């Protein structure tokens, strides 16, 4: 799972090249009409799986609706980020729509669907599978799905993201630089987590399926 | 139309007739939860890490797993998309969300209403039949043994036969002028639909419901305690939106509970001779505030949704 082999990578490139008729594919591989809308592929990878070491998240496996919302949120500043702000601002709404739909159909690895019936001993496992209800923190899997595979249009996957990316988001909520979650459903949870818990639960989800 | 309804009612009644009657034939309302005395905390159930590594620990762990993953672990007894923990939050541990430690020490329970005594297992069988819209496991089945062991263990140190603060749900007063379905819809759209779906259908990941259905064929049936608007309002005010319990006003909780319970759901398994009217008379007329057999927007509710 961890090491995707060269053949698969090559196949992905050929496949990407063969569907250039899709305007979303154009944005993804070459960038938007405005040159400031850099090609997504540069950072998020030909396979959409991101680059863990650089903190670039995976986009493959995210819902189109969620991605389009994030792009609008980068643009409006409710999700502050120095790299994605200029890129999102340079995309037209039509480009956002088509690139999100394009990314949504990328194939993704399969992650283990660990639910609340599993044992939980470590700090990360306990937050993910038991929550911390004395602080009004539900089990992460109650919204993000078993194994954090994501649910519907509103709840993005956590599995398959790097620990660095997951903690950066939780910290962004704690610091108030990410405030884009609907009805503060996620923000109040991140704010109640200690720094050690942020690391533990991020390690837990990034480690699934590895 | 009338004929069609009669046929539909017979069709619904047929499979029900084959079902074994349950010893506890309703989900009677519990007295509302009370606060602990000043300075005191709610009862604290033991920690999972304290469970022994022996046959008892194993049975308790199995009971916990069934409670949170009922659809997968007791599939032949679950007729809808629910798991026990969907209404008994934090795996049946959370005070004010009908915790198992508040329940277990209160059985066998005497009920003057019908001069009967109901056991703990019968109470759980009731939740299988109504809340889970399924068929109850036998009293001496492994599933019931495991669920009982889990409840017994959660109650470690709790006094027997004494009502604990935090049992059941805290009462939410009905708004002065009654509830308002239109306002309930608005609360639903703004605060609930993102999770429970715009048709109350819940949301799945693969085959598993992650966000449980609130109405329709995959939800609790018309005999479940949650079909009472007052009980649903109590639960919702305390625990919804998930993780943000206590954020709705009493009025919002009542309005949205009424909106939720003004939709169709699986038929009451106690349906008498296919007649919603008879069933209302016997089981619903004196059961809190509910809309079974009541006309809403020109339609009589209680037709079922199977």
Automatic annotation (TrEMBL), chain A:
PTM comment text: Binds 2 heme c groups covalently per subunit.
Residues that, per the record, bind heme c 1: 40, 43-44, 84
Span of domain Cytochrome c: 19-107, 119-209
GO MF, any single term: heme binding
InterPro entries reported for this sequence: Cyt_c-like_dom, Cyt_c-like_dom_sf, Cytochrome_c4-like, Cytochrome_c_Oxidase_Subunit
Keyword Transferase listed: no
One Pfam family hit: Cytochrom_C
Gene3D superfamilies, A to Z: Cytochrome c-like domain
Keywords of the record: Heme, Iron, Metal-binding, Signal
KW rRNA-binding (keyword) present: no
One term under GO cellular component: periplasmic space
Binding site for heme c 2: 140, 143-144, 186
Signal peptide as annotated in the record: 1-21
Name of the protein in question: Cytochrome c553
Source organism per UniProt: Halopseudomonas bauzanensis
From TrEMBL, chain B:
Domain spans labelled Cytochrome c: 179-264
Superkingdom field: Bacteria
UniProt-recorded Gene Ontology molecular function terms: electron transfer activity; heme binding; metal ion binding
Signal peptide region: 1-20
Keywords for the protein's UniProt record, in alphabetical order: Heme, Iron, Metal-binding, Signal
Matches recorded under Gene3D superfamilies: Cytochrome c-like domain
Name under which the protein is recorded: Cytochrome c
Originating species: Halopseudomonas bauzanensis
